[in-house]
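Request: Give me one sample?
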Amino acid sequence: METTHRCKHLVTKLWIPNYDPDGYSASISSSSVQVDLTILWQLEHEWMNIASDGAASIISRCVVHSLALRLPLFDYQVFMSDHTSQQILSGALLSMGVDPYLHDSIIINIVAYARSIRNLVSHMAAGMVFPLRARIRLVTMHVRNERVLIDLATRESMIENEGRGKGMIPATDISIKALKTETILEGESCMICLEELSGGSKVTVMPCSHVFHGSCIIRWLKQSHVCPICRFEMPTCSQ
């Protein structure tokens, strides 16, 4: 049984490496400052443990994919145009295999940083080149939550007790069959088995809007008529 939750987050860092205003000059004639942009794209995995007291610690990290792309020199003024910067940067990201749904977030960060150093660029002579680096990391976090593991053990114990007839009341078959099935767009976890519900998968939805694997929630409701998350009560034969 999967006992970790997975999530992804995007980290973008930009900087000017070892900037020396006298050390860079363009090899072409230009009326604008030139940008020498290198993009580093990385796919990473991190494993984190969250203790029962809430303290978080990184257990391990690894880079599973890394690719660098140095763009041809281009005018700094490109960053002043949303349309032009979108065209150039999106094309570069696409050639690196970066998923298009991430492009806007990455480009916004790159352009915002470039515009934030406008004062520095304004003191450079036309035709000069300055280097710019962008490191983009898509990190998949594998989170092991000790509180969740304790909750899981408690729920499993509840199911065992219910199976022994210790007073828990099941939901009616009619109410269970009436539960809706939907396709989720973003991944989350089934809080009964703790396995990931990946985007695009079919889930069963409780009236309280909490979602679970169909087999998990049906098994649960045949033992207990309350939602395992919020305690919403389903109809019972005694009602």
The mean pLDDT is 83. The chain has two domains: 5-143, 169-221.
